[in-house]
Amino acid sequence: MPPMPAANRAQEPSTWQKRTMGAMMGGGVGLTIGFIFGSYSILRNGSGPRGFLATLSQYMLSSAATFSFFLAIGSVIRNDALLPPHMEAARLQLLPPLVRSKAEGAMLVRARWDAERARRTAA
């Protein structure tokens, strides 16, 4: 299959768009969690002097704000790569793996220990 022309290629979302998407997802999750835990708290302890709706809305809004904040930050951190995804995939295919066998790891550790001993005896 021939490569797609540059004009038809989809662009990666910007950092601002990633943050906004994370905040919106966090807001939705937070509202849901706030509704569940707020309803449980109101049923268990009563609504208090402010009433049912005000208490439930405070639970929902505070939970939504918290989730929104952390998911916005997390989505930017998680998606903030130096290389585009297709270049990262190519890099992973072409470079040797970073995971080594136990024997190779043991050889590296022994070599480092030997080098450290040589340095200590020379000094």
TrEMBL record:
Q: Which GO terms describe its cellular component?
A: TIM23 mitochondrial import inner membrane translocase complex
Q: Where in the cell is it found?
A: Membrane
Q: Which UniProt keywords apply?
A: Membrane, Transmembrane, Transmembrane helix
* Transmembrane segment boundaries: 21-43, 55-77
InterPro entries in alphabetical order? Romo1/Mgr2
Identify the domain of life.
Answer: Eukaryota
Give a Pfam family name.
Answer: Romo1
Question: Chief location of this protein?
Answer: membrane
SMART domains in the record, alphabetically? Answer: Romo1
GO biological process assignments: protein import into mitochondrial matrix; protein insertion into mitochondrial inner membrane
For this protein, the record's PANTHER family field holds: REACTIVE OXYGEN SPECIES MODULATOR 1
Give the UniProt family note.
Answer: Belongs to the MGR2 family.
- Descriptive protein name: Reactive mitochondrial oxygen species modulator 1-domain-containing protein
Give the originating organism.
Suillus subaureus
